[in-house]
Amino acid sequence: MVLGLKWDAYPGRINETWVNINEPGNYYGMCSELCGVNHGFMPIHIRAVSKADFAKWVAEAKKEFANTDADKTDAVRLAKTDAPVN
C-alpha cells in the first residue's frame, strides 16, 4: 500500500487531516520539505489500527488522561493564586 499526503504548516494556525487506511499496520515515510539542518531526522511513522482497536484506545485514553480534579491543575492553580508550579 502506498500513502501520499502533503499538508503545509502555517504559523499560528492548526491544520488537521485524516486518511482512510484499509489495512492495519505500520507505515513509514519522510518529511518532504527542506525544513532546516535536521530535515534528515524527521521520519514519519503511522500506526494504522482497526476501528475496534481505536475505539478501545480512545476509551482507555479517556480514563488515563481525564482531568478528574480540575482545581489542582497547574493552569487553574496559577490563575487563582501566585503559587509556583512544582
Report what the structure shows:
The protein is an alpha+beta fold and about 90 residues long. The protein folds into 2 domains: about 1-50, no CATH class; about 50-85, no CATH class. It has 2 helices and 2 strands; from the N terminus they run E-E-H-H. It has helices spanning about 50-65, 75-80, and strands at about 25-30, 45-50. The mean pLDDT is about 75.
Quick structural overview:
This protein is an alpha+beta fold. Helices cover 26% and strands 14% of the residues. It has a two-stranded antiparallel sheet with strand order 1-2.
Number of spatially distinct domains: 2
Q: Output the strand order for the largest sheet.
A: 1-2
Q: Which secondary-structure class do the elements indicate?
A: alpha+beta
Q: Characterize the overall form.
A: flat
**Beta fraction of the residues?**
5-15%
Radius of gyration: 19 Å
Number of strands: 2
- By DSSP (H or I, 4+ residues per run), the number of helices equals 2
In the predicted model, the low-confidence regions spanning at least 5 consecutive residues are: none
- State mean pLDDT (0 to 100 scale): 76
Biggest β-sheet, characterized?
2 strands, antiparallel
Distance between the termini: 47 Å
Helix content: 25-40%
The string of secondary-structure elements, in order, is EEHH
Task: Describe the SSE topology.
Layout: E1 25-30, E2 43-48, H1 51-65, H2 74-80
Antiparallel strand pairs: 1-2
